[in-house]
Amino acid sequence: MLHCPYCQATDQQVRAGNNPSGSQRFLCKVCGKKPTPSPTPIGYPEETRKQVILMCMQGQSFRSVARKMSVNPQTVVNWINAYVAATSRVIYGFPKK
Fold this sequence. Notes:
This protein folds into two domains: 1-40, no CATH class; 46-92. Helices cover 41% and strands 11% of the residues. The protein has helices at 46-57, 62-69, 73-92; strands at 13-18, 24-28. It has a two-stranded antiparallel sheet with strand order 1-2. Helix 1 packs antiparallel against helix 2 (62-69), helix 1 (46-57) crosses helix 3 (73-92) and helix 2 crosses helix 3 (73-92). It is elongated. The mean pLDDT is 88.
């Protein structure tokens, strides 16, 4: 049985929708809090980011990579810009902002 992490009550726990990442939330009718027992993180796995950067560095367009990897094209551009900024800091010794 599910218990509330705030008041430790095991009864009167009802479903209360999902949080922004899609995890199930519950409402404790005893204390009124809405805990999420097993939250899932928002975002993409690091392996997906590395694969996207590798595909772009091999000459594929941002849009084609986005289609193949099921990622928003703007996300691909943001990851590439962050990668270029990080590597240029290492190569040229720029301080981190």
